[in-house]
């Protein structure tokens, strides 16, 4: 069965080539000159006054309070926050 499918596709392909001809064959020919392979790419920098995201807002009071509470925790409890937080952030809200 597979052999007949291959034979049919080859027959169709050969007849299409005769009808269409070689006019559909295209090759990639770059129209640009090759550049020096050792040259470094240009690095574009934004001007210092350009800030696409605007000024950052100050952290909220809740975040500051939470950070202060974390700092006051003993080290062994602080070590437990990281894995627990990453586990909670993995789940959707």
Notes on the protein architecture:
By secondary structure, the chain is an all-alpha fold. It has a domain at 58-93. It is 51% helix and 0% strand. The protein has 3 helices and no strands. The chain has helices spanning 2-20, 61-72, 75-90. The two termini are 53 Å apart. The model has no long low-confidence stretch (mean pLDDT 75). Residues 33-55 are annotated as: Disordered.
List keywords for this structure.
93 residues, 0% strand, 3 helices, mainly alpha, flat, 51% helix
Write the layout of secondary structure elements.
Elements: H1 2-20, H2 61-72, H3 75-90
Helix and strand sequence? HHH
Number of strand elements: 0
Rg computed from alpha carbons, rounded to a whole number of angstroms: 32 Å
User: Would you tell me the overall average pLDDT?
Assistant: 75
Helix content range of the residues, please?
40-55%
Rough outline: flat
Gap between N and C termini: 53 Å
Structural class: mainly alpha
Low-pLDDT windows of residues: none
By DSSP (H or I, 4+ residues per run), the number of helices equals 3
Strand content: under 5%
The biggest beta sheet reads: none
Region (Disordered): 33-55
Tell me briefly what this model is:
With about 90 residues, the protein is mainly α.
């Amino acid at each position: 069965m597979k052999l007949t499918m291959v034979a049919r596709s080859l027959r169709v392909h050969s007849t299409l080539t005769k009808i269409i001809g070689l006019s559909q064959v295209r090759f990639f020919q770059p129209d640009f000159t090759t550049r020096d392979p050792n040259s470094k790419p240009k690095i574009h920098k934004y001007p210092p006054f350009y800030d696409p995201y605007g000024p950052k807002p100050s952290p909220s009071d809740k975040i500051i309070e939470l950070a202060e509470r974390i700092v006051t925790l003993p080290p062994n409890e602080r070590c437990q926050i990281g894995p627990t937080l990453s586990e909670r952030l993995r789940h959707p809200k």
